[in-house]
Amino acid sequence: LAFVMHGLGGFKEQDHIATFADAFKEKGFTVVRFDTTNTLGESGGKYENATITNYYEDLEDVIKWAQEQKWYQEPFALSGHSLGGICTALYAEKYPKKVLALALISTVVSGKLSIEAHKRDDAEDFSNWEKTGWKEEQSRSKPGVIKRLPWSHIADRLKYNLLSNVSKLTMPVLLITGENDTSTPPDHVQILFEALPGPKEYHIIKNAPHTFRDKKHLAEIKNLFLKWVDKATNQGESSDEYFDIVDENNSPTGERRLRSEAHSKGLWHRTVHIYLFKKTDEIEFLVHFRSKTKDLNPNKWDTRFGGHLKAGESIQNAIKEELQDEVSLILEPSNLIQGETYKRDKYPNREFTNAYYYKFEGEVSLLKFNDGEVQEVKWMKSSTILESMSKEPEIWSGSKSGFTEIFNVLKSILKN
Q1: Which of 27, 28, 213, 338 is most buried, judging by how many CB atoms fall within 10 Å of its CB?
Q2: Mean of the pLDDT values across residues 276-280?
Q3: The whole model's pTM is what?
Q4: Number of C-alpha atoms within 13 angstroms, CB side, residue 119?
C-alpha cells in the first residue's frame, strides 16, 4: 500500500504525481492518490486557505479512511511532492512504525529554509508579498487560473521543520530534486539528506525545475523509483535476481540462475569493480564501509565499488548503473580506465571480475553515498591499505593479494 500526495496548488492527476503512483503500481502496490482541500482539485475549499497544517490534516484523514478498507495494510509507503513531501515526512516522524518507506520529491524541509530559498530566488517578490499581504501567480498546471496566497501561509509554514524530529525517519528514504529547483533547492535537500539516520538515497535530476513536466525527467524519476522500491522492500540485489552463468573459462553456458543459487552452488558468474583513486604523494583509493544488509561481506571495508552483472546486462550498463546507484556518479564507461579481468575462486562464490579505474578529482562531499550500499567513506593511501590488510585482514572484504594485483596494474597503466 502506498499514499501519494501532491504539492501546494497541485492535484492528483498531475503528470509527476501519476509517475510516482505508476512506479508503485508496477511493483504491486495498491496506491491512493487524493486531492487535499484548498487546492485546484476536486476536494473543495479555496487555494488562499492552503497551509501545511490543512494539507497534513487531510493526509491523516485519508489514512484514517483507508484503515476502514479491506485492502488496508501496515506498514505502508508514503510519497509526496513539495508541500506534500513535508506532510508525508511529518506523518512518518509521528508514526514511524506505520511507514515502510518514504519518497520525498522536491520536498519542503522547513519553513525557515522555504523563506531563504524564496529570498534567494526573488527577494523583491518576497518583499512585496510581505508588504501587500498577498502573492499572486498564474497556475502552470491549470492555465487561466490565478493563484492568490496570503502572508498567513508563511506564518503557518514557519511552524514546521523536518530536522527537529529527523531521528525518527529510520525507514528507507528516497530524495529527488531538480538541479534548477529554486523553491526546494538541492543544497537545502542536502541538509535533510545528511541528517537522515537510516537507509537513504538522494538524486538530483539534471536541468530539471521544481515541478517535473519534461517526459525525459519523468522517465528518469520513474526508473529511480522502481529501483528504490526494490531496495526498500528487499526485492532488489539484497534479495534475489538472475545471473548469466559462465564456465571456468568465462564463456557463457546459456544458463540463468538466481543469485542465491549461484552463490550457494559455486556457479561461475561475472562482476564489475570500479576503483576510485587520486594521486597525491602516492596513490590513494576511496574506500568504503559496506552496508550491514549486504549478503556478502557486510560491515567490512572495501576498496572497490560495483556489483554483479544481472542476466542480459552488459559490462557497460553495469558500470553506469552501479556507479549511479552507489555514489550517484553518472559516467560513461569511456571515462574510465579499463583494467584486467580476474578469475576469483572463493568457493562457493566464484566470479570473473572486470576491473576499471576512475581518477576522481572532485570533493567527496559532492558524491551521494546511498546508505543502502555504503555506511562510511574516506580516502586511504595505498600503503595504509596494504598495511591494514596485513594486520587486520578480517576487517576487509577483499584480500591483500587481490588488492596488490589491482594496485600493480594501476601503477603500470599510470606509468605508461
Answers
A1: 27
A2: 93
A3: 0.59
A4: 9
Contact 243, 311 (CB under 8 A): yes
Whole-angstrom Cα distance, residue 126 to residue 280?
Answer: 47
* 356 vs 260, higher pLDDT: 356
**For 28-79, what is each residue's pLDDT tens digit?**
999 999 999 999 889 889 999 999 999 999 999 999 999 999 999 989 999 9
CATH H-level, domain 2-232: superfamily: Alpha/Beta hydrolase fold, catalytic domain (3.40.50.1820)
In sequence order, the 6+-apart residues with CB closer than 8 A to the CB of 152 are 51
Domain ranges of the chain: 2-232, 245-415
Tell the residue number behind the cell numbers 553518472, with chain if given.
Answer: 330
Residues in CB range of 184: below 8 A, 6 or more apart: 82, 85, 106, 107, 108, 109, 114, 117, 177, 210
| Sequence-distant (≥ 6) Cβ neighbours of residue 101 within 8 angstroms | 77, 78, 171, 172, 173, 174, 228, 229, 232, 233
CATH superfamily assigned to domain 245-415: Nucleoside Triphosphate Pyrophosphohydrolase (3.90.79.10)
